[in-house]
């Protein structure tokens, strides 16, 4: 079984550029490219991100979104903003998790987070 996450978008090329920059640390690369589809995959078992060109712009809140776990939240927030993501929230915290809500260049929401520190970790 394979998990594929499909993201509707107006401009698959622009979205591919944005998401490849965001997911580069995980080794994502372009794969299947046959309009209206363009997939981003990685050699690991991470899900495929399938970009699907659609004619309509996004309206309303996503019912499903990506959550990206990182080690350095401030650095990732800065990087995402430099790549063109728009911050939709201030820092949020719950159950030891800290995160921000962002929108990609076409307005699709996603979160970037750091998990709670374990009792045995340094710092």
From TrEMBL:
PANTHER family associated with the record: CONSERVED PROTEIN, HYPOTHETICAL FUSION PROTEIN
Name of the protein described by the UniProt record: VOC domain-containing protein
TM spans (from-to): none
Pfam families: Glyoxalase_6
Source species of the chain: Kribbella pratensis
Cited InterPro entries: Glyas_Bleomycin-R_OHBP_Dase, Glyoxalase_6, VOC_core
All residue ranges annotated as the VOC domain in the record: 1-115
